[in-house]
Design goal:
elongated, five-stranded mixed β-sheet, Methyltransferase, Cobalt-precorrin-4 Transmethylase, Domain 2, five-stranded parallel β-sheet, Cobalt-precorrin-4 Transmethylase, domain 1, 241 residues, alpha/beta
Length: 241
């Protein structure tokens, strides 16, 4: 079973209106949409973002929601990746048998941008042997959305911006000291961040783009950061005068 074209689609931070026109067009045309979810009993957040398109497409669209658990256990992840591959190819083959034509185009949908800590590139790797062509469509990041809503720029002039996924490394500590703007995705170990940046101006976005989004501004020491998967903290370490 071969797939003519695989798309990696950035669905943005959660607001359907932040989906790009290109992403919208492709999602209206593809044969199958693949949207990962973190647990079997949860819906894909990326799929929730584009559910208006799903409803517009009706029953002719194939939707697959493979489980990609939040774990660093490599062996466990490999098992889930194989299950995802099997599920996608099985649905494509069933479609071919039922309708007499192949499932030629597949869109893998991810929140934010596919190039920013998403699972798309791993997905791409496990399908390379059955895919003829690949296209990646960028999306709006959570920190871009946070910045826009708070009306505070991420960077100006020659300011240096750094994205810090884990503060408990020597490299991260050096970056924190040398950057003008800092972006912490899914921030944790706030004691380390507060110790370094306690009186710096910060923006916290929680579930940005969704109906229950929350934006909080203030000094780092004043902000109570929740342990939520969809949270983004932007800190202005050395803002322009």
């Amino acid at each position: 079973m071969r797939i003519r074209k695989l798309y990696g689609i950035g669905a943005g931070p959660g607001d359907p209106e932040l989906l790009t026109l290109k992403a919208y067009r492709i999602l209206k045309e593809v044969d199958m949409i693949v949207a990962p979810k973190s647990r079997e009993d949860k819906r894909s957040l990326a799929l929730l973002t584009i559910e208006g398109i799903i409803k517009e497409r009706g029953n002719g669209l194939i939707v697959v929601e493979p489980v990609f658990p939040m774990t660093k256990d490599r062996d466990k992840l490999e098992q889930y990746w194989e299950k995802a591959r099997d599920a996608v190819l099985a649905r494509a083959e069933a479609e071919a048998k039922a309708k007499g034509k192949g499932c030629e185009t597949v869109a893998f949908v991810t929140l934010g941008d596919p190039s920013m800590y998403s699972t798309f590139y791993r997905f791409m790797e496990i399908f390379k042997d059955v895919v003829d062509e690949i296209e990646v469509v960028p999306g709006v990041t959570s920190f871009s959305a946070c910045s826009a809503i708070a009306k505070v720029p991420v960077a100006e002039g020659n300011e240096i911006v750094s994205i810090v996924p884990d503060v408990k490394t020597q490299n991260a500590l050096r970056v924190i000291e040398s950057s003008d703007s800092l972006i912490f995705l899914k921030p944790k170990n706030m004691d380390v961040i507060e110790n370094k940046l306690c009186n710096k101006k910060a923006i916290l976005g929680v579930r940005v783009g969704f109906k229950d989004q929350e934006i909080i501004t203030g000094e780092v020491s004043e902000i109570d950061v929740p342990t939520h998967y969809l949270s983004t903290l932007i800190v202005k370490n050395n803002p322009r005068a």
